[in-house]
Amino acid sequence: MEDGAQRLTTNNHNSAGAYQEDDDLWNASVPHEHTSIPQDTSTLAPAQAIKWGHLTPDERARRQIRFDRRMRAASGSIKKVSARRRQDSTPLPTSLVSDELSVAASGWIGTCIPREGEKEFTVDELCGPEYNMKLIDWDGCLSRPILDVEARVVGVLAGRPRGSDWDATVDQATRELAFARESLRPSDKDSDHRRGKFPALVAGISFGGGQTKPANLHSSKVNKSILDGLLHGASKSFSRIAMFASSMLECYAPRVFASYRESLDALLAQDPTLAPNFHKSVFAAATFNLGPSTVTRPHLDRGNLAWGWCSITALGSFDPDFGGHLVLWDLGLVIRFPAGSTILIPSAVVKHSNVKIRGGDVRCSFTQYTSGGLLRWVYNGFCTDKDLLAHAKKEGKEEEVNEKRKADRAKRWAEGLEKFSKVENSKFVY
Length: 430
Ligand SMILES: O=C(O)CCC(=O)C(=O)O
Ligand SMILES: [Fe+2]
Known about the structure:
The protein has helices at residues 32-35, 46-52, 57-74, 80-87, 123-127, 166-183, 186-189, 221-232, 237-252, 254-270, 372-379, 385-394, 398-418, and strands at residues 92-93, 134-136, 144-147, 153-159, 200-206, 215-216, 285-289, 310-317, 326-328, 333-335, 342-345, 352-354, 362-369, 422-424, 427-429. The chain is α+β, with helices and mostly antiparallel strands.
């Protein structure tokens, strides 16, 4: 345990009592409420056992579902299994000063940084005298919220669901990525981009440079069929991973989650042609980093929402003690990152990369995120800045609209940071 680390003791709703603490709740094919249905009164909390003792099992089950929903609503709506995970987590304090991170003047996205060279780093180099970083020997299972200097939760080593079938899900996802990699056209196979030298496929809803409105990220015909397999294949591996990551966002950054949820709902209501990747995930878009050596260079994903979190799930078959670690440059951390585990970070503002992997090892990853442009579109009332200002001019309200926009810009980053949760007196506050 690092200096100053403490155990979170959230005030969550254990009184519901009737839940089985069962990570099979993550099993995408089973609606989670049904897994918690008590079959006899002995599994009910005492108060419910007295009140509901006369009911038939079916009636009790229905009441239990309603009761659980109310309990979840009262406690910020997270599932019991997530609340337990949060309660058992040990924070990871750092000296990050979040207010000093760089964001674009608009406050919606991150800033541009120069593209870094091809050098791949080892753990020894990063933790040696030149970079002086700290190795976090994470087991990849237990959740660890990452705290800034003000005990603000700026990200989380989320871990993995405890269900016994998670390894099978991870193996299946890894096989599906290998198949996708093999199926790419040769020209797509050796791509070299800002983040590194490995092919990647993107899917979902985005609004970035050059677009006039939010749109579904599209790909070539070949890649579309590969993506369809990854997103909608019978195994549902990526839908499970996506759902776990989304629920971890809800658990550790409920107010960021709510912003994603609200803006996604607004977008879908306004434009029914937009198609999210997964029903049970609030992230608007996803990237499949196909490897075989997904070792990213130090980079920012600057188009993502500045105060948004991006989920990263490591996949593949590699030695996590040798490489694949997630390096968080602004935090001075090198985090062991085994396949099957998920980490969430504000990737638009925190520079990150991976440690070099061992020759012959295979590393892939799956990320989910929401672009800042999407929230700006919703904030503008579903139009671009340009159209908004043109409209304001026509109405003779240019000055008024400009003043408001200027004021909003100036406070957007600070307001975004306020959406992060805090750990105060060992309690999770949001
Ligand atoms: O694979 C990883 O651990 C990092 C992935 C990443 O940063 C990205 O895809 O932008
Ligand atoms: Fe990234």
